[in-house]
């Protein structure tokens, strides 16, 4: 009898594991919970024992909640038990139903030496003030096992976007967290900062807004009308081009999406001109619609537009590459600073030395022909000042993309330490060392970093000296 009961328990356990694996697959691949009954039926037909219960979509939701809670508990225990350093990343969002929520992510070395960024929790906010967000964030951390004492010793950094509620000088979320954790390092998302720098350029340089408005017209023309999209596809096929998708440019999305739009217009320039010409001469359209296509064609075939297109293509190609580099998970602060410094020098160089697409557009301006399309002058289409544009881009990126905490954050006791942070980190890079290296070179910087990140000072200094000797012996 006892053996029979034990066999029944093992069979129930095995079927329950099968059900849990099925639910986990649905959650991991983002499938709807209603897939659960269908997946269970499929596995039963394949001979898998799935038991008689826990087959509904509600059961799937409950199972995934349980799995998520256990996984979160395991992650937190690993971080706390091993006393790992912790960074918090948050972003405010809104659900489809209009509720304000807070997305919380953690970055830490979880079960490995290399840090990972993981989604931690989605919190429904009772209010959207800085106080409400701060209380919700700290409550989330405390409820999941991060007590105040642990956070004081191991919470290193806080990252967010540039909203005033997050980075307000006096009462922002960052300022309130800094008052509780004096050594907290606050970081304004680099990609958000890059977008702000681009917005500053839009305000300073004339002609960019006109270019943006025209490309938005193209997006509206083809995005809202399958007929226009089909006609453009036929035009591209007739001229032997592969049609690329035209989206919005310099909108709320990252600059990489703007680069794809400008590339689409550049590559499909001839197809657009053919479509506009044919539509303007199509007698089946009314006079108003034909006049609209004629006006679009007049702007598209101007010398100024082609030059602007080349300038924007060069700029957005560089900005897109920079944006993607900054989004890399393994990007470090020192690497980001070097990349930004290099990119600023590229923009400064492009003030006097045009990029490849700008050079092509300048040659087209001289020959009055671009991609087999004749061009004409039109004073109403404002030409972007090439030198002013790239000079403004270099200055605004240099001004916005600072290596220390955002200027919006209220001043804390760690202000002086933060001002030396990047220079102290550079001491760890052997390629920045002087030719004649003193044995105590960089010891003061290492001590400041140890104090900043609350790690063992003496062990770090001794290890750094050993690292210098090891590097010196190899040269």
TrEMBL record:
Domain of life: Eukaryota
Descriptive protein name: DUF4371 domain-containing protein
